[in-house]
Amino acid sequence: xxxxxxTASAKSLLKRLLSHSSYPTATKIxxxxxxxxxxxxxxxxxxxxxxxxxxxxxxxxxKQKAEVLVKRRTRSxxxxxxxxxxxxxxxxxxxxxxxxxxxxxxxxxxxxxKSFVDCTLGxxxxxxxxxxAHPEMEFYVGLDVDPIAHQIAQARxxxxxxxxxxxSKKDLRxxxxxxxxxxxxxxxxxxxxxxxxxxxxxxxxxxxxSSMQVNNAERGFSVxxxxxxxxxxxxxxxLRAEDILNLWPDDEVGRILRDYGEESNWFxxxxxxxxxxxTGGLHSTNELVGLIRNxxxxxxxxxxxxxxxTATRVFQxxxxxxxxxxxxxxxxxxxCFDCLASGGRLAVITFHSLEDRIVKQAFLxxxxxxxxxxxxxxxxxxxxxxxxxxxxxxxxxxxVLTKRPITPSESEERLNPRSRSAKLRVIEKx
Length: 430
Ligand SMILES: C[S@@+](CC[C@H](N)C(=O)[O-])C[C@H]1O[C@@H](n2cnc3c(N)ncnc32)[C@H](O)[C@@H]1O
Known about the structure:
This is MraW methylase family protein. The structure is a single chain. Helices cover 51% and strands 11% of the residues. It is an alpha/beta fold and 430 residues long. A nine-stranded mixed beta sheet has the order 3-2-1-4-5-9-8-7-6, sandwiched between helices. A hairpin with a 3-residue loop joins strand 7 (393-394) and strand 8. Helix 5 runs parallel beside helix 6 (125-133) and helix 11 (250-259) packs across helix 14 (304-323). It is globular, with a radius of gyration of 27 Å. It binds S-adenosylmethionine.
């Protein structure tokens, strides 16, 4: 077949260039490629990894740029009371600071909260503030799978009720349970059928870990403290992170790192983790971090920033798998929505993109695809009354009050860096 003119001339130009330059000819090039020395192999490997890390760096930069843009559109306009904040938390780095607290209070401010469910008690920070802000509350339920959180939150709520809230224990029926929020429906049914009919007015899910969990080395959640590879939110569960690392099939380990950690280096890490089994396996967070440090040092992304980011992604992946967090979240959003009364609101705070995607999708699914960006008179009334509502998606059964999520103000991020990745989404039952 005749060669197109442009290709032919390009070929002859290349030939001429090769014959006049110090480059080997085409045949020589192929021989050269096959007789590549060990030193050159290493050089090529370095070049390849440099190219890979350059493109990864570019991708990282693009991601950061996109994040800055999104943040600009979603940042909360609510400034934090800095004096109050330092009075409450001072220099105490161990205390758990409730994230987006003012914003959560705004979400429920216009709802007469006769009944409220906090699915993630933690240190009870959100619950205590919501109970204080709603003296009309008659029925409160708090859940957590962690016995330490359960105990701390219970004490905090009792403290609030004993103080100046205008509420007393007999006005308000308080039920705190050591339970997974996936059983929210049965918990409510077991306590009393009435709250489910017509339903509860407010539900909050503040996902992820509390500072008490991260700061306790024995729980194995922290990249920076040495402890057992545990990562169970519920100490009664049987699966630990070390079971996954030492016993699960190779490709399952890789899948977790790829899908739950969004770690680009997942395959190399999978191979190293599986290889470590030959010498007794991994049993402490330090051993896992050491393995990650060794596997990131050959790339340009080595250095403290590189390995800490990778280790954070690997720890996130293991934590999600140990606690089956994504499936639990997905199913529980539907259960929580079912428990709402008409006009009731479900608010969810997430801390990474996998969680946020699930919440966004589930909300849109509930709105039933017939939803549309609303400029209806209802939306105008909402906007007038509640300045935090910017755009809604309205459907026959529900209304997503946050088309875009709400993210912390700059002052909150500065005062509580843990809040940096938080996103708040809210849905209201019609
Ligand atoms: C970020 S903390 C909540 C902090 C709380 N909002 C506060 O103001 O102190 C998240 C809590 O949710 C709990 N948790 C996580 N997954 C859970 C689940 N599926 N069911 C119940 N509790 C869960 C954790 O044990 C942890 O105590």
